[in-house]
Each structure stands twice: as C-alpha cells, then as structure tokens.
Amino acid sequence: MSVRCFLYLNAQQTTAFRWRAGVLSEDGAFAAGDSGRFVEYLEANPKCIFTILANVADEGFQVETIPLLRGADRRAVIARKLGQQFFNAILTASSSLGHEQSRRKNERVLLAALTGNETFSPWLQALASTEAALTGIYSLPLLQPLLVRRLAITDERCLLLTVQDQSIRQSYLEKGELQFSRLSVLQDDSAGSMARAFASEARKLQQYLISQRLIGRQQPITAYLLVHASAREAVRSICVTQDTLSFVILDIEQCAQRCRVRTPPPDTRCELLFLQLLATDRPRTQFASDSLRHAYHLRRVRSLLHGVAASVLLTCLLYAGNDWYQAKQLDDEVEAVNRETFLAQQRYDAILRTFPPIPTTSENLRLLINRYLELEKGSRSPDLLWREISQALQGEPSVEVDGIDWRMTSPTPGEAVPGELQHSELPSSEGELAIVRGTLRVGASSSNRRQVLAAFNRLLAALQRNPSLTVEVLQQPFDIESGKLVQGGDVGAEDGRLPSFKLRIRRTIAT
Question: Residue 186 half-sphere exposure, CB side, CA atoms within 13 Å?
Fold first, then answer.
C-alpha cells in the first residue's frame, strides 16, 4: 500500500514528513549538500508517494493578459509567455485569475516560476535515480489563497504575512487570488525582531505595490499577520495602524483549527499549517512537468491495473462461490432424494413381504404384463363399425338385426374364422368385415312385397352413402330374379316366416 510523504524544501535543507491517519510527523531532515543520505532515504521507502512544497526566494510572479482562448491554442500562448518571462526556468506554472469584463473579454493569467534550478536539481536527480513517485512540486505562495478562504478573509485587497523557518513570506492577494509574493530572511527569531520585521516588510510591500500601480497611493489596505499567542503582545505593540496600512493579528492556533491541523503549532512558524493544507486540499497549479512525474504516472497505471485485476479476481471468486454454493445445494438435494428413495424402497419391500407368494418369478410376471400390454395396444374393437351400421339403421324402424359376425380382414395365421367369414374374399390391406343378418317388419302393410323391397333398398342406400364402407348383399328378402314373378299378398303366408336378409360389410382401416 502506498504511503504519502511530503518534502518541505527551502534554501537550507529538505525536511520529510509522513502522513499517517491525518497527522503529519517528521521523518527526517537532509541538508542542502547531503543528497546521498536523501537517496538512501528514498531507497528505504520505495512505496512512498512524494509531494514537494517549496519555500524559496528564487521565484517569480507575473500577471499577464491574453486573448480568450481554449485548448491547445491557450496552452501554446501561455508556454510562449512563460518562456519570455522566465527563460531558463524548468519549473513553471500558470493560474487563471479570471476574465476582464471588457469588450474583448481577455483572460488574466498569473505566470509563476521557481527560477533557482540549482536549488532543486540535486533533489530532483535523487528522485529520478531511485524512480520515486513524485506527484508534483508546489510553491507555498500558491497555497495562500486557500488559507485566505479557510480563514474567511473577505477583503478585496489584502496582504498576508507568515513566518516559515528563518524567513517571512509576504503576499498580495486580490479577490482571493494571489497576485504577487516575496520572501525575506528573518535575522532573529525573537518576538521583538519578528514584530519589527512584520511592520517593516508590510510597508515595503505596500510601497512596491504602489510603484507597480497595483494599488492606489491613498488606497487603504490591511495586512494580516499569523502570530502565536506567545508573540502577540510584542507584535501588537510594534505593528500599529498608520495612514493607509492597518494590521490584523490572527491567532495561529485558531487558524490551525480551521485548517483541521490536529497538532497545534508550538510557535509562529506555519510550515505544518501549509503542509496540512497541501495534504487535504491540494491545488491544481503545480510546477513539475510530465517527465518529472513519469514514475508517478506509471505507479498510477500500475495501481489501476492492480485494481482492475483485483476486481476481476473478486468477481471470479464471487461467481465461483456462487457456483460452489449452488453445487452444494444440488448435492444436498440429491442426497435427500437418495435417502427418500432408500426409505421408499424399504417401505416397498416391506409391503411386498406382506403379499402371498406368486407361482412365478417377478421377471416372468413383468414379461407377461409387457406382452399383454403389447397385445392390448395392437388389438382392435368393432365399436367403430357397429356405430356406422347403427347410424344407417336409425332411419329404418322396420329393419331388425338378428346377428352380426365380425372379424379383422387380416387374421392371425391359424386363427379360427367363423361361418360365412371363412369363404369371404378378404382384401390385402387391414380392415374389418361384418356379416349382418336381419329381418324386415313393414307393419300392417307387410304383405306388400314392394314396400319390403323399398325398405331394404333404403337400408342399402344409407350404408352405401358412407364412403368408408363397402356393402355386398348375400341374401335378398325374397327372390327378385328376372324369371320370377313379384306378386302382392302375405309375404310369410307360405311358411309363416318374415322376409330376412344378409349383408357383408367391409371397412378399411387407414394406415
């Protein structure tokens, strides 16, 4: 896991601070010429991500006005302006100060540079040689607008004076944005010497701003001083409001609370205050180029790939866990079904033992039942043919059926065939054959042979209208050959019998 470390750099030394649970703790100090020990420190902390906060006098600030541009054109114009203002500087930055409310709507840009290349070169070379991850290089004055917002200073124009190590930082802010900053050396760190330095440096900065026409000659301005409680009385006695310059003393401990510094500063020095601001609310403007931040970009890509790989692995583990859980549930269900099957088999065996013994084995009985089912499936019933015959008889109440002989037209070899069915010419296809025997009762007029013949013909016509039936007359109710005379009178007068008939009906089964 990466650890955040901050390097506070000034002209005399570089101090390392480690960020742990929201608290900064000093991790080591390295003199300006002691880059070798700094390299050892970097090698001993390969997982640290470093951020540099610089507080040096070799710096420059310039406010420029450029046309309203976007994208690559704006970057090109700013790069040209930086090259013109700070020719040899390798650490440059720019910050937008807003747009002018004029017809052309130009943009005001603060150009800044750390011009002391020899001050930064040993430290940057050490970082590059150890491939340490550098997030950026920040200047202490560029953090002062954030401090002004945290302290709720609402003056349109103001001066901010702070003490860091052995120097006093004086900055001019307009509408909460940095316009100019300078650093002066503090010769003595006593309270009286610090108070006199505050008063003199504030007046010098006011005169400089008037000479640069950044403020008016008679324009009042307020200087805010961050002072510890131990030096407050000395500063108050010396920094007295005069003419257009007034002083406001801010308690550094209260400022630390507003900036969420857990450990209050022990004196007037503000290094920890600005480092806390950098750790919690890092500004966008910084001086390191992409080449200096190359190792940091690689680490970010590596961390991103590790995160993606961890996410994929976690997803796979979740899917595998889900599959394992489902498989475990299926195994439990299979085991439960097997137990139920075993218990059911035991109950079945117990029931079988209560039955009387059968004369054959279970295997033979199973074969017999299977054979019976096959025969049952292949057997035919005369129901359909009888239904066709009954529908034809519905319209003829005078016809009485005495008997029907039925069988299939493709009998099993060796099977006995009854009566007239033995002499029937059966078709080759499978079907049904029935011999229908019956008599005719014509009623009171049964002596009329013509009426009997008409009833018989209607029966034939009703049967022949069914296309699935083939009807053949085997016996007429009486002889109607051409050589015999059809006469009226009692049909059964000679022998006392009613006229009878016999039909052969075939029905083909579609396959």
Answer: 24
